[in-house]
Amino acid sequence: MDNDNAKNFGLETGTIIDEKEFKRQNRIPSMMELIWKEIRRDPFAIFSVLMFITLVVIAFVWGNLIDEAAVSRIAPRQINLSPAAFGSLGTDESGRPMLQMLIISFRNSMQLSFMVTVPIIIIGTFTGLFIGYYGGYIDLVVLRIIDTIIMVPNLMVIAFLSMWLNNWGVREFAMTMVLMGWFGGARGLRARVLQEAAKDYVLASKTLGTPNIVIIFKKIFPNVLSFIMVSGILTLASMIGFEAGLTAIGFGLPFGVPSIGRLISLGMNPIVLANRQWQWVPAVLLIFFMSISILGIGTAVSRAVNPRQRR
Amino acid sequence: MWKSTLRRFLIAIPQLLAVSLVVFALAQFLPGDPLQGLIVEDGTLDPERVHEMRVAAGLYDPVWQRYFTWIGNMLRGDFGRSLNWRRPVIELVGERLSNSMLLSGLTLIMVYTVAVPLGLIAGRYKGRVAEKVISFWNFIQMSFPTIIFAVILLWVFAIILQWFPISGSRNALLVHQSWWVVFRDRIHHAMLPAIAGAALAGVAIVQFLSNEVNDQKNLEYTTTALGKGVPLNKVYTRHIFRNSLLPIASGLGSAIVGIFGSGVIIENLFTFRGMGNLFVTGLNNQDWPVVNFLVMFYGALTIIGFLISDIMLTIFDPRIRIK
Questions:
Q1: Checking CA distances to B263, which of A62, A179, A205, B321 falls within 20 to 30 Å?
Q2: What residues does B271 pair with on adjacent strands?
Q3: Nearest-Cα residue of chain B relative to residue A277
Q4: CB proximity A143 to B under 8 Å
């Protein structure tokens, strides 16, 4: 093969090569290709992706195969049995098998994290794009509203809603978390869109008469997609810990719903902490591996979309 | 500078008012009223008497009138009485405030004495073993949600090693002791929650400093200094570290806000009797005077904290002042 560039431009042979062929060779790699390339190059990122897939499969396939009603039946004769006495991971303080309870809890926590993260990303993206692009009064008003909501503590809203609504369930909790969680991402995105909207290509599009909606979604959106992806991944990682923290201090999921936060909050009891490690160590490890895998993917993605960080 | 500070301050006032409105409205929609606990406790209470008490407490007044009474009282320094403890809110908060301030102070000291040097080292020795170890540790720490970190700290330091108490904020048996013994005991109790808080706040600082120092390495002023023959160590201590530390130093105000905020969860995980603990207890007991006061307190703290940060930034960085 001789000089690639010369060949692409048809200089070598003196003929103009096929337009499709030209485009294929000079194509800018898409975001997904870049991310995949970056992940393939980094062993830790591959490990993270595999672990993430494994954990998700465990949560949603194994978790749904377990007969929840049978497992969560209280068995007074086998309370607090250690793994040595009971087999597998032992039993909890109501005599239920820890392993199955752990998987169900993990599934519930994962489900909640996704239920919260996806709407947050969608709402945050729309708000960030619109207020960042239009700026002016809309920007000012929405920002002031956000500043005010930020000052109202999450706990108070959760406490209020859980008392006000008659049935406080998983869905209600998720909705509250979305309500209190969307503006962080929206704010960050707004700043990015503000920078992006000042660039020449936006001005050019405006001059050519492209409608604003088209500029927002077809021109600006692809350029801030990377930011949205990274902040979405970080939100997902933080949600798992957030659920655990809130449940531990009594403002999380309703009491009857098994979740990782519930398991860990039981572990915070000094007696359990000191004597029954099998009741909380697996949950701690599970959360730890989950966040490590999400953050591992997150760093690879942010490297892929941010050339300055690439090695 | 004074003009922009004043303007920020003036913007803050309607913001606080908006927060107070939201908080007041939230409390209004809740079932029950401040006197309900009393009535349930004492079933023999005469309905007539209950009615009188409600009238006296102003519960039948129109909503807006109650709101203005509340705001007016707060401005005059009357923050109401706790329904649960039956004591003035300000007294309760005063007790907790010293605990919270001790905890925040310890956390801040840890953040600035551990995270800052780690960040500087990681930035200076990018690509070397030191940086890799620090980055790895930072990554691990980032993967630990606060609660996991708290559980592990409790298990290792309070149960296995028994270096620190497992909960509480002071030893109640220490009476008639010298202030030093009492103070040491309180520090001892605050240690574990402070470590948890510092780990939470430190991660971002290490990452920020490491990137910042690394970026400054290739800037022109660094090359100039090196070209003039300034020793490498001096270039770092005199130029690069100074520039990188600017945002950290001026971030003190927002750091305090963040630490007070994270205290709500951390204090409860360690049953440390600070303001965060008071807030959660108040919420659980529907003790609205306490909760409302604390929300307003946190709101005011947020505004003041960010204001301090802004002012410090203008003092440290002449470029902003000129603009």
A1: A179
A2: none
A3: B155
A4: no
> Which residue of chain B has the CA closest to A262?
B147
Which among B15, B145, B151 has CB closest to A267? B151
Q: Per-residue confidence of chain B (323 residues) as pLDDT tens digits?
A: 677 777 777 877 888 888 888 888 877 776 656 565 555 555 666 777 777 777 776 667 777 888 888 888 888 877 777 777 778 888 888 888 888 989 999 999 998 899 889 988 988 888 888 888 998 888 888 888 888 888 888 888 888 888 888 777 777 777 777 888 888 888 888 889 999 988 888 888 888 888 888 888 888 888 888 888 888 888 888 888 888 887 787 778 778 888 888 888 888 888 888 888 898 888 888 777 888 888 888 888 888 887 787 777 777 776 666 54
